[in-house]
Amino acid sequence: MSKQPKKIVHEGKIVSIDNVSIGVEIVNKSACATCHAKGVCGAAEEQVRIIDIPQTLTTATAGYQVGDTVRLVLSATMGMKAVILAYGLPLAILLAAILIFSALKIEQLYVGLFSLAAVAVYYIIFAIFRDKLDKEFVFSIEQ
């Protein structure tokens, strides 16, 4: 028996098409989107995002039109990698910096400030390499 790879799937609507990319609008819903009290609760929110999918030979010949409903697919392993890069590594850096600066007998205020600065440096490096990450984390389209 062969296992099919797990996928992360979002429903979306095509809002733009050009020679380079296809723009697909998706609606990110909060975890409480299905709650009956969401109309009166301030925590319920929806966020509209436009994801640019690079044009390939497959997408160019598929005949997509603006307004078509499509599914955006990303492998689950890439989703886990994104979570680790965005949350796991910064947390590890923060904890390591706290332990290292505390072991050096630095005053607590400075331990906190230096640890936050270490995380800020990580996110600056993360932003510098954003173009490389954009090429690695690519959604594909299914009709």
Task: Give a structural overview.
Helices cover 43% and strands 27% of the residues. The chain is α+β, with helices and mostly antiparallel strands and 143 residues long. It has one domain. The longest helix is centred in the middle third of the chain and has 28 residues, at 76-103. The model has no long low-confidence stretch (mean pLDDT 81).
Cα end-to-end separation: 27 Å
Question: Overall mean pLDDT score?
Answer: 81
Arrangement of strands in the largest sheet: 3-2-1-4-5
Q: What summary fits the major beta sheet?
A: 5 strands, antiparallel
Report the helical percentage: 40-55%
Overall form? elongated
> pLDDT under 50 segments (min length 5)?
none
Number of domains: 1
Q: What count of helical segments does DSSP give?
A: 4
Order of helices and strands: EEEHEHHHE
The secondary-structure class comes to alpha+beta
Strand content: 25-35%
Features:
143 residues, alpha+beta, 5-stranded antiparallel sheet, 4 helices, 5 strands, 43% helix
Could you outline the blueprint of secondary structure elements for this entry?
Layout: E1 7-17, E2 21-29, E3 46-54, H1 57-61, E4 69-75, H2 76-103, H3 108-128, H4 130-136, E5 140-142
What can be said about this structure in brief?
By secondary structure, this protein is α+β, with helices and mostly antiparallel strands. About 45% of the residues lie in helices and about 25% in strands.
